[in-house]
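Customer escalation, tier 2.

The customer says the design service returned an amino acid string that "doesn't look like it belongs to this structure." They asked us to rerun it and document both sides in this ticket. The original structure tokens are below, unchanged.
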């Protein structure tokens, strides 16, 4: 690994996954809270405010970012299932990461949020059929996107940021 920004590689969606191929992606989403907790335990409280790379967020900010990002994603999934190609709202991730709650808030708050959110998200994802994963949302920066791409993206996103926290603990 030479680029600490992308310790698991950059996101590269595959063609539309089958139900069998979606199952491990949903498993990854459901398993994220435990993976983040394990990474935070390896880092230890005394190193949570250490950045994973020069100019990067601290481990604490990464954990809070996961909660912020994934709650937004969960809402995007639900909107896409209940509306016709909704235009989603973006947010300034970097600015959210600099807010005081992200810079100094206890990581346990975001870990607890991730526990509940990912349990709910997993139940929701497992209830969807093939046709539903073909539904689209309109991302203001990326255009129309199908839910199966978002599923892959957020499975990758969690793994990507757990790897960032693990870099601090290495």
């Amino acid at each position: 690994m030479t680029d600490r920004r992308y310790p698991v590689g950059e996101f590269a969606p595959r063609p539309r996954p089958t139900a069998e191929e979606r199952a491990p992606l949903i498993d990854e989403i459901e398993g994220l809270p435990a993976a983040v907790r394990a990474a935070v335990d390896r880092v230890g409280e005394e190193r949570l405010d250490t950045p994973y790379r020069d100019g990067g967020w601290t481990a604490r900010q990464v954990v809070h970012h996961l909660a912020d990002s994934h709650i937004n994603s969960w809402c995007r999934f639900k909107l896409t299932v209940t509306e016709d190609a909704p235009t989603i709202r973006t947010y300034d991730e970097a600015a959210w990461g600099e807010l005081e709650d992200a810079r100094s808030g206890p990581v346990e708050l975001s870990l607890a949020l991730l526990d509940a959110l990912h349990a709910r998200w997993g139940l929701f994802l497992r209830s969807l059929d093939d046709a539903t994963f073909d539904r689209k949302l309109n991302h203001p920066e990326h255009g129309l996107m199908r839910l199966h791409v978002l599923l892959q993206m957020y499975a990758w996103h969690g793994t990507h940021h757990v790897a960032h926290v693990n870099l601090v603990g290495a």
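Tier 2 assessment: The sequence is consistent with the input. The chain has a mean pLDDT of 97. Residues 19-43 form the longest helix (25 residues). Sent an explanation to the customer and offered a walkthrough call.
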